[in-house]
Design goal:
homotrimer; 464 residues; alpha+beta; Jelly Rolls; 3 domains; 7-stranded antiparallel β-sheet; 13 helices; Cupin_1 (chains A, B, C); signal (chains A, B, C); RmlC-like_jellyroll (chains A, B, C)
């Protein structure tokens, strides 16, 4: 793979230069730099200071850093396991949060205010109630469960099954159980913080020592007055829970909560969630299916966030047409299967002397193997292709930022945009006869999903 | 008070390191740092350069700086007298402007585009007409007055009294009189600049040397042509006013302007302003009252800004329930009385080694005494409590950013969110029996406003 | 011209200090600074690194830099030829793009997400189809042409003539011909990127080596499968075009495409474009005319962008009233003629010792000669005047950011805002009798456009 961005090559040179300095002034400079970077969010800044300390302790951080930047330089659009941090983990499940997009690259500044998180819960397991200072939309990637939200005067429960989509409003207190006996429940979330762009926190009220309850941050006299209760009784209540935020429930507890949900659910479940498989299937043939949810179709849940959602099912050995989204940036998460991805990425234009002939942009290939959990960002206007491996279907859920009035424009296949050019436009643009253009652009009879390439570029790697 | 954020402790270490350097290179480095900080607004950058010069002059700036950062570290959510700058001051009144929120902390980046200002005017005093490059909403905290707005073809006057709320659109030319004989008129403004996020300016057309008229910035030949008037006559007009922008009016002048307003007002006053006390009182008992204005209720004034407004009246010795706003960040300004404030603030999560057990967030107490003029920022989702001192009622006006569809969720009292949990959820979450949970969460019979704590933490300090 | 901002004078001091250092550490520091400036967009960052390299090669970069900053300090609101970069250029036309506003000054941060571009095309010339990852609105400043947009299932053509305005949605593939035999076609575009604030790219699908086709970024096996076509045939198609993105068409080709457009156009042209001269003429007299398009009048094209458009025609030797926009920032581009511009710019307030008397803002004059292609940014609330030279009418198109509910407030002439003040307000504000105020503010009988000044300040310069 060639490096996509000259910029990052320059960064490497610069990093090497820094490495020539002596140890101590370096640490000092490092701290000064961190201090001056007040535009950074707290997480990133803390990491900045940490890196300085690691320098001092003699670790050869430059090595690691160069690698990291080289990798970023090659492809700032792909995120894998190591780009997630653990928000919470017990022996029964975990919440993982993808790094901030702008911590990866300034090129992703347009989606800075969005985060991706996944929640994985073991069978017969309970997630302690909490609220987040963020709006979110989640997709049930695997398993079944029940989510319950509470307010001061009511409670609503929703059954979750694979393919379900649900909006969680900022500040809603909710808890989840996985009532299945065998399968994990996996949710993929797109999170939009409401306080600080790109940063959010979970707030646990119920709890004790672990998860810590936010009640314990208040003064004792405040709590005594608020609860009209003596201090010792309060301490007994808020000191018991030590098992963490994701914990095993007994069969009775699971059954009780599931039972109650069945009863109490009524029409709510219909209002609160909808399933991607019951949505418009915009394209479908033997090579794959595309399901699309437009923000205007689910006003209550998606319109104010302007988020669209799509599900791509690609048959093993098949591929999508090269295509682009007109105005959405798509955050794609691989739910199942393997394959690979290619995207045309416009180059940095070379600085030019005044008055010279300028060629306009050129394009580099961005490519990556895909496996479960891989996250890919596809900016608007960028042509891209997804290929399923020869052994497995590939399933990808996409959150489409700026989703309203977005169109997917196919660049090959039966209905492609080039076929609509006038004869003279084809001839002038390609510099050949219309016949030669049509020979290529009219040879593919399928639409949107095609038979994939005979030899798969990443086949070896993704099958390792 | 414990430090809320580890981050700021690290800053102190770093600042100390800088202080070890020699003087001159330090000044140079300082200037380079300021120069490189192009993301700063002009005010802050100028302050940056100033600080460098102060270093050169031998002042021990490090001392002051460390203090300032320590204080910020402890509590970036509270603003007092010293965090205001004077926008304009004469012997008859003043305009004060709170520092930019992001000059205080990156944690406040979500409200970066908002500013708080106060206008204090003596009895029988006139504020010279001006327009601002900012939208604003103001609350009349004390006194009575008349505000008049002018356009090219009309003039409208509005009587102002305590509790009135009014929207001022960007670019509207207006002036104010305090026609009372004894009482000051005090307005509290939330300002949203339209040109540069977080920065705004006042434009005085009428005026002369002080306040300076913007007409004098134009070339003489332009003014001569524009006014069809000779230069000497122009210089006479624009050179007279030297008393400043807030000046004493004669009784006749005040009466004339008040009279005309009474006449001309008619229905306008009803359209232009509304009073908080005539709004929905969402909660009320012997311990306090809450008045809330939703942006959707006053579409003309508040909807496009998405600002809600609330007024909290807490009886002496009483307190609010611990509660949080689901999606609004609240900028609260103490209008009258004394008391104190506590908030649970989620900690920086400690960086963890891969695969280890992660506990999720923990919470620190943010606390501050409250007195007239104190400004507190309460981010969405953060549980907080306000307590009135034992001697005085406490009155707080709140501007609620992202006000539409915001809910206040009570965490104790008759209707609280924990009471809505299912039995099994209570037991699993707290690790105790439902009975033990209910003993605490059902003991307080009041709703929203409660009898306050017996011993007030900040009582001593706020009564000094 | 006096310097508008004290800030930039400080920058010069700082730059001079840097210049005293030795060469090599300077280059190193330079690179470190560039590296640390992660908040910069890629273009600017690359330029940062470039500047470091130029230092190393011994060029006296400081000289040039000081000049540039001095100029910026004097007037960050004016852009001329040298502030454009060439996006694409062949011997038959070019696309030029104005530098990012925030690369010029942080004062322009409020319009950071907008860019200005111009497209100039020779007679009988064709622009190869492309799509942009940006929304845009363009104004036909000169000439006639035809623009055709294509989608997967349809094609629409629009005739363009001087004064036409058209919205191009992000991701729309389109091409342009200039079918005239003699005149160039000139479009002025306001561009709003959808991916990264302030950055956009063009995507050419049709093409070959020059313009490069984005198809060539994909792997051969992907293209073979997508097009169901052998590699050699693909290479033949995507290797032919070498003439660049703007190329000469034969008379037959031009005729064929024009013919087809006449036929196919039908009602579309009416829906797709509208002409500024058919819009509301809000002001008109012998000295000039103002045409204004409000975003609410053309919902389909302008409302979601909240962009208004205005056209100012000033008769030779005439001028506009001093006026300000209440909430729009106006990006004005000189389409024809010469003249000059003056604006009142509020000063940095001097830092003041606590409790002292504060005068409020003061105002500096920002002034510049105007000639074809000059771009001027006029922030909301800032009073400004435009004067046409004595020899030529002056024509200026304005894109008004935040266009809805904007008002233009005249500060002199028959209907001006000062005339609406009450008698007492005039007397108090100016410190003179009402008669003296009225003598000046009622002398000019014209409205909005006036006879210009006798001696024009910039006449000499702009006529050189």
């Amino acid at each position: 793979m060639r490096a996509c961005l000259v910029l990052f090559a320059l960064l490497l040179v610069s990093a090497a230069t820094v490495a020539l300095g002596t140890r101590d002034p370096e640490v000092q400079q490092c701290r000064e730099k961190c201090e001056s970077e007040r535009h950074l969010d707290k997480e990133r800044r803390q990491r900045c200071f940490q890196r300085c300390e690691e320098k001092q302790s003699g670790d050869d951080i430059m090595e690691g850093r160069s690698e990291s930047e080289e990798e970023q330089g090659q492809n700032p659009y792909v995120f894998e396991d190591r780009h997630f941090v653990t928000g919470m983990q017990t022996q029964h499940g975990r919440i993982r949060i993808l790094q901030k997009f702008t911590d990866r690259s300034e090129l992703l500044r347009g989606i800075e205010n969005y985060r991706v998180a996944t929640l994985e819960i073991d069978p017969q397991t309970f997630v302690v109630p909490s609220h987040w200072d963020a709006d979110s939309v989640f997709f049930v990637a695997r398993g079944e469960g029940t989510l319950t939200s509470v307010w001061e005067d009511r409670r609503e429960s929703y059954n979750l099954k694979q393919g379900d989509i649900m909006r969680m409003r900022a500040g809603t207190t909710s808890y989840v159980i996985n009532q299945d006996n065998n399968e994990r429940l996996i949710l993929v979330k797109l999170v939009k913080p409401v306080n600080t762009p790109g940063n959010f926190e979970a707030f646990f009220g119920a709890g004790g020592e672990n998860p810590e309850s936010f009640y314990s941050a208040f003064s004792n006299e405040i709590l005594e007055a608020a609860f009209n209760t003596k201090r010792d009784r309060l301490q007994r209540l808020f000191g018991q829970q030590k098992q963490g935020g994701i914990l095993k429930a007994s069969q009775e507890q699971v059954r009780a909560m599931s039972h109650r949900q069945e009863e109490g659910r009524g029409g709510e479940s219909k209002k609160g969630t909808f399933n991607i498989y019951s949505q418009r299937r915009t394209h479908s043939n033997q090579y794959g299916q595309l399901y699309v949810v437009d923000p205007s179709q689910h006003r209550q849940q998606l319109q104010d966030l302007d988020i669209g959602i799509s599900l791509l099912n690609i048959t093993q050995g098949a591929m999508t047409a090269p295509l682009y989204n007109t105005k959405s940036t798509k955050i794609a998460v691989v739910v199942e299967g393997e394959g690979y991805f290619e995207m045309a990425c416009p180059h940095l234009s070379q600085p030019q002397s005044e008055g010279s002939t300028s060629r306009g942009p050129s394009y580099q290939k961005v490519t990556t193997p895909l496996r479960q959990g891989t996250v890919v960002v596809i900016p608007a206007g960028h042509p891209s292709v997804v290929v399923a491996s020869k052994n497995q279907n590939l399933q990808i859920v996409g959150f489409e930022i700026n989703g309203s009035n977005n169109e997917k424009i196919p660049l090959a296949g039966r209905r492609n945009v080039i076929n609509q050019l006038e004869r003279e436009a084809k001839e002038l643009a390609f510099g050949v006869s219309e016949r030669q253009v049509d020979e290529v652009f009219k040879a593919q009879q399928e639409e949107f999903f095609f038979k994939g390439p005979r030899h798969q570029q990443h086949q070896g790697r993704s099958d390792e």
